[in-house]
């Protein structure tokens, strides 16, 4: 099995000192930086866009894992690539041209991800599997941090791992992830874990490290 990846969501960081938060959570053991982009249209909240991501880029060498909760998404893909995102994940529900969006991300030289809301079946991605480097399984309805984990995500991960039929695709889970849920998700076949509130509680480097180690099961 692949090593577990912990991807703190800076949605839960202190926005007044985001650069410092990114450096601190990097040192605390984050593997990827999960960047939640929300447009107030696809999801009922607004966060930040490519200019903020670009400003954060010099603060860490870790992978920038962008989760775009925006519609339309195609007009903005190049801006996120230029801002320094390494993974660009779009929602299967965000528009009628998922296949085109994934092709566009690969054409920009970035890893292509697709995310599924809790109510969306796996069949939505059946015909794009060869265009995908990562599947982001939502275990909350996207829009806000700090929500309760939806347990049906565990079955979805297991069915997705089977559906991938050995393809080297990351399965990342996002929403309400904590030390209590990682074991079952990893056993089902997930290898990457987004955590916002569970990482950033405590507000210090020592607490972030303890939180990340706990989620990793160490
Ligand atoms: C939800 C976002 C998540 C969120 C996770 O719309 O996609 O990445 O920040 O936060 P927690 O871990 O607090 O549920
Ligand atoms: Zn996210």
Protein topology:
Elements: E1 5-8, H1 18-27, E2 32-38, H2 50-56, E3 63-69, H3 77-82, E4 87-91, H4 98-107, E5 111-116, E6 134-138, H5 152-163, E7 170-174, H6 179-188, E8 192-195, H7 197-200, H8 205-216
Parallel strand pairs: 1-8, 2-3, 3-4, 4-5, 5-6, 6-7, 7-8
The protein binds D-xylitol-5-phosphate and zinc ion.
Cofactor: Mn(2+); a divalent metal cation; Fe(2+); Co(2+)
InterPro entries: Aldolase_TIM (IPR013785), Ribul_P_3_epim (IPR026019), Ribul_P_3_epim-like (IPR000056), RibuloseP-bd_barrel (IPR011060)
Protein name: Ribulose-phosphate 3-epimerase
Portion of residues in beta strands equals 15-25%
Radius of gyration: 16 Å
* CATH fold descriptor: TIM Barrel
CA-based shape: globular
CATH superfamily, called what? Aldolase class I
Strand order of the largest sheet: 1-8-7-6-5-4-3-2
The stretches of 5 or more residues where confidence is low (pLDDT under 50) are: none
Number of strands: 8
Major sheet characteristics: 8 strands, parallel
How much is the average pLDDT?
A: 97
Count of structural domains? 1
Structural class comes to alpha/beta
* Helix share, percent: 25-40%
Q: What compounds are bound to the protein?
A: D-xylitol-5-phosphate, zinc ion
CATH class: Alpha Beta
H/E element sequence: EHEHEHEHEEHEHEHH
Distance between the termini: 17 Å
Number of helices: 8
């Amino acid at each position: 099995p692949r090593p577990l990846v912990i991807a703190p969501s800076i949605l839960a960081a202190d926005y007044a000192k985001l650069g410092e938060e990114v450096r601190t959570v990097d040192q605390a053991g984050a593997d990827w930086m999960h960047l939640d982009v929300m447009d107030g249209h696809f999801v009922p909240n607004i966060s930040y866009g490519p200019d903020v991501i670009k400003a954060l880029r010099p603060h860490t060498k870790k992978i920038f894992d962008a989760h775009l909760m925006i519609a339309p998404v195609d007009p903005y893909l190049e801006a996120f690539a230029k801002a320094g995102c390494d993974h660009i994940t779009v929602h299967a529900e965000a528009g009628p041209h998922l296949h085109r969006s994934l092709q566009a991300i690969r054409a920009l030289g970035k890893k292509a991800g697709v995310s599924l809301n809790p109510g969306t079946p796996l069949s939505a991605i059946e015909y794009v599997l060869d265009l995908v480097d990562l599947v982001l399984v939502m275990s909350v309805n996207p829009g806000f941090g700090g929500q309760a984990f939806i347990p049906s995500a565990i079955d979805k991960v297991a069915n997705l791992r089977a559906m991938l039929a050995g393809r080297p695709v990351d399965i990342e889970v996002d929403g309400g992830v904590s030390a209590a849920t990682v074991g079952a998700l990893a056993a089902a076949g997930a290898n990457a874990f987004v955590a916002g509130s569970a990482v950033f509680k405590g507000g210090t480097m020592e607490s972030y490290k303890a939180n990340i180690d706990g989620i990793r099961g160490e």
